[in-house]
Write a structure and sequence with these properties.
8 strands; 11 helices; alpha/beta; single chain; Rossmann fold
Length: 325
């Protein structure tokens, strides 16, 4: 498979922002983080229709506490238990903060009338697998078991994320199944980072050092090595790299969205096909011309706007209040 021809393949509105993006330095984890930080937009100002609160979820079984940020409708008290999304930010398992998702999650709360709890999970290489997954499980357990006290509906809980966060969401579903615990109502997987093995054509097609706005193969290798730690190159469990899972039965229904010029295209499509083959209700969307990181609020292009609408529709179907029998 030849390298991605950005000019020919990427949606035109995305091409317009390429000159505004920084030139990534993929030399090391530190340089990747520095570029990422420099590219970040200022935190979104609070939306008066949304109540944000930062809290700490107590760790159990020797695990550390986990910082989270709640987003709720400002008038939620009168609405009874809310549907809730547990959100896991992206960043290649090595980057990402709560602040960068404020605008996206504020908008989701306003549009859908739900609650969202965003997880400040620990990053590699300082905290390799399974630290981030443990943090996701800690928060998920608190929300699921203390739903009434938190004002959320335990029957309408979704886990989701973008990129590495979506990889953690998929891994959490695998872990919950293996522990014999209930699944979420939906796993919302936005171009998930699932496979460390570089076995697909789309991941091997990334040029070195990569196109502006696209992930580099060097960054991919550095990120997976950081996240897997001593497991890298060895016996990697499916809860670290979900694409390795042989058995996908018994998992939550899935929404999976990815662009067709995303390096994760092939592993994402393969995972969706195997979920469906395992009897998991699966909704797969492939968006022409959309790059990795194309999902945002507000969207920049017609196809990323469609991406956002499709995500909202999938969540609305799960978040709809149960009808009286």
């Amino acid at each position: 498979m030849p390298a991605i021809d950005v000019t020919a393949r990427v949606e035109p509105g995305t091409l317009e922002i390429f000159p505004l993006l920084p030139r990534w330095d993929f030399t090391s984890i530190d340089t990747i983080r520095a570029t990422y930080a420099a590219a970040g937009a200022p935190p979104a100002p609070p939306d008066p229709r949304v109540r944000r609160t930062d809290e700490v979820v107590a760790g159990t079984d020797g695990r550390p506490d986990v910082r989270v940020r709640w987003y709720r409708p400002a008038d939620a008290d009168a609405d009874g238990p809310l549907p809730c999304l547990v959100w896991l930010h992206g960043g290649g398992y090595i980057m990402g903060t709560l602040d960068e998702n404020d605008g996206r999650l504020d908008r989701m709360v306003v549009e859908l009338g739900c609650a969202v709890v965003s997880v400040d999970w620990r990053l590699a290489p300082e905290h390799p697998y399974p630290a981030g997954l443990d943090d996701a499980e800690t928060v998920w357990t608190r929300v699921a078991e203390d739903a009434a006290a938190l004002g959320v509906d335990p029957a309408r809980l979704v886990v989701g994320g973008a990129s590495a966060g979506a990889g953690l969401a998929a891994a959490l579903c695998l872990r919950l199944r293996d522990l014999g615990r209930p699944q979420p109502a939906l796993q919302l997987l936005v171009y998930p980072m699932l496979d460390d093995r570089e076995v697909t054509a789309s991941i091997r097609a990334i040029e070195e050092p990569g196109h502006p706005g696209l992930w580099s193969i060097r960054a991919q290798r550095l990120a997976w090595a950081a996240y897997l730690g001593p497991l890298a190159g060895g016996d990697v469990p499916p809860t670290a790299a979900p694409a390795r899972a042989q058995d996908l039965t018994g998992l939550a229904p899935a929404f999976l969205g990815v662009g067709d010029v995303d390096a994760y295209l092939d592993e994402n499509v393969d995972y969706a096909v195997r979920l469906s083959g395992a009897g998991v209700p699966t909704e797969l969307h492939v968006y022409p011309g959309v790059i990795h990181g194309g999902f945002g609020a507000p969207p920049r292009t017609p196809r990323t706007a469609q991406f956002l609408r499709d995500i909202y529709e999938a969540l609305r179907a799960v978040f709809a209040p149960p009808t009286a029998g």
